[in-house]
Amino acid sequence: METIGENAFRCSALERVVLLDGIRSIERQAFFESNWLLEIVLPSTLQSIGPGAFRNCRHLKRISIPEGVTELSANVFCGCADLES
């Protein structure tokens, strides 16, 4: 699998996610309103993050964007009130 699809984890109860190498894109609203998500680890192979991918993940605290990301769409982190880094 190279893509995390649209709404794949919408409203999930996941707290921490580690995406494995090989993932190249995260589509629109893939993690939309995953309110319990605190941290996500993105793979070095990631190239694009779609619109609102993490929108309203209110408790998301940490995320590191890999250097290979060339497309960071609008509103990716809109509503991520607890985002620290």
Could you please describe the fold and organization of this structure?
The chain is mainly β and 85 residues long. Helices cover 0% and strands 19% of the residues. The strands form two sheets. The chain has a four-stranded parallel sheet, with no helix packed on it. A three-stranded parallel sheet has the order 2-4-6, with no helix packed on it. The model has no long low-confidence stretch (mean pLDDT 94).
Break the fold down into its secondary structure elements and pairings:
Blueprint: E1 3-4, E2 16-18, E3 25-26, E4 39-41, E5 48-49, E6 62-63, E7 71-72
Parallel strand pairs: 1-3, 2-4, 3-5, 4-6, 5-7
Tell me the number of helical segments per DSSP (H or I, 4 or more residues long). 0
Helix content: under 10%
**Could you list the spans in which at least 5 consecutive residues all have pLDDT below 50?**
none
- Give the H and E element order: EEEEEEE
In what range is the share of β-strand residues?
15-25%
Distance between the termini: 27 Å
Shape: globular
Radius of gyration from the alpha-carbon trace, in angstroms: 11 Å
Specify the biggest β-sheet: 4 strands, parallel
Question: What do the pLDDT scores average to?
Answer: 94
What is the spatial order of strands in the main beta sheet?
1-3-5-7
- What is the total tally of β strands? 7
* SSE class: mainly beta
